[in-house]
Specification:
By secondary structure, this protein is of the alpha+beta class. The protein is built from six helices and three strands, in the order E-H-H-H-E-E-H-H-H.
């Protein structure tokens, strides 16, 4: 599977140390928000001919990680071309290289991911007294 992985380092240690359902829920919710943000970006940038690649993009959240990827075999060669330089044939990215259509999503959405991490911290702080 071609994929992008998001890991919140230390989140599992914090959750284990606190043994709090509120912490686990905050981390899961934040990861789901991050995964949705990245998935939407990946779908937006996925090269489209028949739509199969775009439709194959999925997410999986298992705190402290989330995976966004595709099981379509040609996804990786389009993302990381080695011998040829594929490009978008149509749409808003027409003529641009397809390189990093998947793996570039973390950079393209870095500000939103940072905001989601901050929201996790705020959710944990709010739920601390529960």
């Amino acid at each position: 599977m071609t994929k992008v992985q998001i890991t919140v380092k230390g989140a599992d240690d914090v959750a284990r140390a606190l043994e709090s359902a509120n912490v686990r829920e905050a981390v899961r919710g934040g990861l789901e928000r991050m995964a949705t943000t990245v998935r939407n970006d990946v779908i937006e940038w996925a090269p489209v001919d028949t739509g199969r690649l775009r439709a194959s993009v999925t997410t999986r959240v298992e705190p402290p990680q989330a995976w966004i990827g595709t099981n379509v075999g040609y996804g990786l060669p389009l993302d990381q071309p080695v011998t040829r330089r594929p490009h978008y044939r149509a749409g808003p990215h027409r003529g641009a290289s397809t390189a990093r259509w998947l793996t570039g999503s973390l950079e393209r959405r870095a500000a939103e991911i940072r905001a989601a991490v901050a929201a996790i911290a705020e959710d944990i702080q709010r739920g601390w007294g529960k």
